[in-house]
Amino acid sequence: MTETDAGLIDACGEKPVRTSWSRGWIVLFSLVAPINLLMSLDRQAMTLSAPRIQQQFGFSLVQISLIIACVLWTYALLQIPAGALVNRYGPRKCLFVGCLAWSIATILTPMCSSFFGFMVVRLAMGVGQAPDWSSSIVAINNWFPAGRRAKANAVLLGFLYMGSVIGGPLLTQITAHWSWKLGFYIFGFGGVIWSCLWVVFMRDRPPEVQVAKGERTLPPGLPMKQLLQSRQFWSIGIHYMCLLTIQSFFLTLMPFYLMDHRHLQFTSMGWLYSMPWSFLYVSVFLSGMIADLVLRRTRSLWKARTPMGMIGTFCCGTLVLLGDHIQNIPVMIVIFSFALGCSGLSQISIWTSVQDLTRGQTGLVAGWTTFWGNAASGIAPIVMVYIVRMTGSWSTALLLPFVAGLIGSVCCSATHPERPIEGPVEGA
C-alpha cells in the first residue's frame, strides 16, 4: 500500500491495512468480475430470446413480460437474507452455491414447454442469483481500500454490463442461425464450470488482513433494527429502486419497444439493443476513475459520491422520455444510449456509498439496496406493459422512468457517505 493510499484511508475514517492491492485486481479480473458476466449473459438469454419464445408458445405480451421479470421477484425477496448469509459465511461459499444453482436453472430453461414451467424455472434462477451481488460487493470491500473501490466497482459493473453489450448481437445471431435454446445451454454449462473454479481459487479476504482493534462495530442487539432507523439506509435503497425502474425499460422492454413500436427486425434489434449498454459499459469505467480522482483531491467521500449520483439519475430518466419523442431511429438510439450511460454515474455512486456507509454490515446493506432495486426491476416493466395495454401509448408508459429519475435524485441527496449508518465509532 502506498503512503497516498494510507493517508487517504485515514482521511476516510478507516485504519490503513498494509496489503497487496495488486492481488485484489487479480481476484477481481479472474474470479469476481467474470462470474457476474456469466450472470448477465444468463439474464440476457431470456430477454433476447423472448420474442421467439412468445411466438413459439403463443404467450401474450403480459405473459412473456411476467416470465422475463419473475426472476427478479425471488432475487429481490432474498437479497436481505442473502446479504446476512454473506456476512456470516463469506462470498466464497455463498456464491459457489448460488452460481451452481442458477446455472442449473439456465440449463433447464429450454426444456420448459408451458407458461407455468417457465415461471418455476425462472423463479428458481432468481433464488440462485440472490447471493451474487452481496458476495461481489463484500469481496471488493475486503480486497480493496476505500481510495480504490470506485475503480474496482467500475470493473465489476463493466463486466456485468458487458453481458448486455455482447449478448445482444451474440444471442440474436445464435437464435437466427440455430435455435433460441442453444444460448441457454452454452451459458448454463459455462456457469457450472465457473462455479467450480470459484470455490477452488477464491478466498474471502487477503490472508494478511486482520480485523483492526477499535474497528467500527454495530452496538449489541439486532443490527437490522438500528439500520431501519437510519434515513441514509432508506435513502440509498429507494434511490436504487428508482434507478433500476429506469434501467428495467432497457433490460426487459426495449426489444419489444423496438420491434412492436418502432417496427424493427429481430436481427437489427439485437445490435441496437446493445448500443445503450455499450455507453453504460464505458460510463462506469469513466465514473469510477472520476470518483477516485475527486476523492484523492478533495478527501471528501460526499463530493466523490453524491453529486454524480444525483446528476446521473436525473439525466437518465429525463433522456428516456426525450428519446421516445424522437422519430429518427438513429438519433433516438443515441439519446437512449446517453440515458443509460448516465446511470453509470449513479451505479458507481450507489455501490461505493454502500461500502462507505458501513463496515461490519456491508453484505446486509448491499442486500437491502439490491432488494429495493430488483423489486422495482420485477414490477416496473409489468406496470409499463399494463400502461401500454390500457392506453396504447409507450410515451405514457415512459413517464414512469422520468418520475423515478426525479425521486431518485432527491433520495441521493440525502445520502452522506462520511456519516456511517452505525453511528459514531465507540471511543472516538
Keywords summarizing the entry:
Growth Hormone, Chain: A, 428 residues, disordered N terminus, 18 helices, mainly alpha, 0% strand
Average the pLDDT over all residues and give the rounded result: 80
* Individual helix count: 18
What's the CATH architecture name? Up-down Bundle
Q: How would you name the oligomeric state of the polypeptide chains in this document?
A: single chain
Question: Beta fraction of the residues?
Answer: under 5%
Give the name of the CATH superfamily.
MFS general substrate transporter like domains
CATH class equals: Mainly Alpha
Low-confidence stretches: 1-19, 210-222
Structural class: mainly alpha
Order of helices and strands: HHHHHHHHHHHHHHHHHH
Fill in the CATH topology.
Growth Hormone, Chain: A
| Molecular shape | globular
Helicity level: over 70%
- Rg value: 21 Å
Structural overview:
With about 425 residues, the protein is mostly helical. Helices cover about 80% and strands about 0% of the residues. Helix 6 runs antiparallel to helix 7 and helix 9 runs antiparallel to helix 13.
Q: Helices, strands, pairings?
A:
Elements: H1 3-11, H2 21-57, H3 61-69, H4 71-77, H5 79-89, H6 91-108, H7 115-129, H8 132-143, H9 146-177, H10 180-201, H11 223-228, H12 231-261, H13 266-298, H14 301-324, H15 329-357, H16 362-391, H17 394-397, H18 399-413
